[in-house]
Specification:
single chain; 483 residues; Outer membrane efflux proteins (OEP)
Length: 483
């Protein structure tokens, strides 16, 4: 009767444990409350440049060759590939946890039992039994123990805890793949930006050298006028100082070209070398740029997809942390040869096998599991906020990029007009100076203004191309060709 009551009590405790544990299997729900706009700045286009191949967006063959080289040799991309392999090993580890583990074992040991113990008395008494032969007599007082065979352990995934961990590992693998896509989109934009910067610097260098020639001619002219008594030494000094200042700009621009080439070579994964490039005048800019609809951007932009996958992985971690409170069913087994005499170890009579199964659940001192649960909940919420931030960042970058392109186009038109007017002003000021109707200061100011305006115009053109590359990246363009 006592034994029956004991079994009933154990059954009640197990039932209570299971019931209590089942209440913990529901992770904290959290849903993104972001309601995204239906369009970017009022534009409603089904397709945008983000869906185009980067070779279509950047038709320059030399730029295409540089991007191909970067996608092949860039160190950051190589690191990303290894991170994918690390994540793939996490899946293998999680998959292996679902299967039984089998280990081979060759072991030997021994011990001496006390004479006044159950084992000591039992071993001593057994040797006097008439039912055993000499092979089965226990050696003493030191009792050896030899084993050759296999042992197995297996946790049955009755609650789905191990499968949940495998799901988390799989989502992290997908997230690392998206992280590689983030690097690809950023790399294409970086290479294109550096390339357009080089092209613009080349154009600036041409403008500076052209102005140096004009200023050298002006210096010679004012020297001749000085000899004829129509100009002073001060005028000669002012024109010469302006020419020297422009020559210093030439050296500064050359240094910028070297630095930009080296930065681009780093992206290409190679040592400093000259970069082949075309002229700014040969670059073509798309007549019409469409952004597409936000839904496409959300699906295409890899950093948003990465954040979503990481959020799902942490959500699975949270589930697994709560499932850890439930009882686990473990099965152990062994099969091999076991003997206390080495000479008899591989005898058929020494074959030993066994199996055991048991349910184990944490009851007392569960602080470690609770701490893991709290941490996983916090990580899951942080991943949600990171996902929300990625969405906000995507919309902000696209909106800023569209406005930047629009305003840059207006500025470019105005600056082009300004340069044309100032170039005409230089010619007029030179004629007036030669005829005595303008001072040398007016000529110097006119030359300085046209140089500044031409350099600014070149920088605006560079900004326009970089704005295009930034918008292309913001819309998630570039990585899909890597599939």
């Amino acid at each position: 009767m006592t034994a029956l009551h004991t079994y009933k009590n154990l059954a009640i405790i197990a039932l209570l444990t299971l019931t209590w544990g089942c209440k913990l299997t529901q992770p904290i729900e959290h849903n993104s409350g972001i309601s995204t706009p239906q369009s970017f700045s009022g534009q409603i286009d089904s397709t945008g440049i983000g869906s185009l191949n980067w070779k279509t967006v950047f038709p320059d063959n030399r730029l295409s060759a540089l991007i191909d080289t970067a996608l092949l040799n860039n160190p950051d991309l190589k690191i990303a590939v290894q991170r994918i392999e690390m994540a793939r090993s996490g899946i293998m580890q999680a998959q292996g946890a679902l299967l039984p583990s089998v280990t081979g074992e060759v072991s030997g040991g021994g011990r001496k039992f006390g004479n006044y113990t159950m084992d000591g008395v039992g071993n001593y008494d057994t040797n006097f039994s008439e039912n055993i032969n000499n092979d089965r007599r226990i050696p003493g007082p030191f009792l050896p123990d030899y084993f050759v065979g296999v042992r197995s352990a297996w946790e049955l995934d009755i609650w789905g805890k191990l499968k949940t961990r495998r799901k988390a590992a799989y989502n992290r693998l997908l997230a690392t793949e998206k992280a590689r896509h983030v690097i690809i989109t950023g790399l294409i934009a970086q290479v294109a930006s550096k390339y357009f910067t080089l092209v613009a610097l080349d154009n600036e260098l041409d403008i500076i050298r052209k102005n140096i020639l004009l200023q050298e001619s002006a210096v010679e002219t004012v020297k001749i006028q000085k000899e004829g008594g129509r100009a002073t030494e001060l005028a000669v000094k002012q024109f010469t100082a302006q020419m020297i200042n422009t020559k210093s700009l030439e050296v500064e621009t050359q240094q910028k070209i070297v630095a930009t080439e080296n930065e681009l070579n780093l992206l290409l994964g190679r040592f400093p070398a000259p970069i082949l490039r075309t002229n700014l005048s040969e670059q073509t800019f798309p007549e019409q740029i469409k952004s597409g609809i936000p839904a496409n951007m959300l699906r295409r932009r890899p950093d948003i997809q990465q954040a979503q996958l990481e959020m799902q992985a942490y959500y699975s971690d949270q589930q697994a942390a709560q499932l850890a409170f439930l009882p686990s069913l473990n099965i152990t087994a062994l099969l091999g040869f076991n003997s206390f005499k080495s000479s008899l170890l591989f005898s058929p009579a020494s074959i030993a096998y066994g199996a055991a199964a048991g349910l184990a659940a944490p009851i007392i001192n569960r602080k470690g599991l609770k701490a893991n649960q709290k941490r996983s909940e916090a990580e899951s919420k942080a991943a949600l906020y990171k996902y929300d931030k990625a969405i906000f960042t995507g919309f902000q970058e696209v909106s800023t990029g569209l406005k930047r392109l629009e305003n840059t186009k207006k500025i470019l038109s105005l600056k082009t007009q300004e340069v044309e007017v100032l170039q005409e002003g230089v010619a007029i000021s030179k004629d007036l100076f030669l005829s005595g109707y303008a001072s040398y200061l007016e000529v110097i100011i006119a030359q300085r203004n046209v140089l500044d305006a031409e350099l600014t115009l070149t920088d605006i053109k560079r900004t326009q191309f970089i704005a295009l590359t930034d918008l292309y990246r913001a819309l998630g363009g570039g990585w899909e060709q890597d599939k």
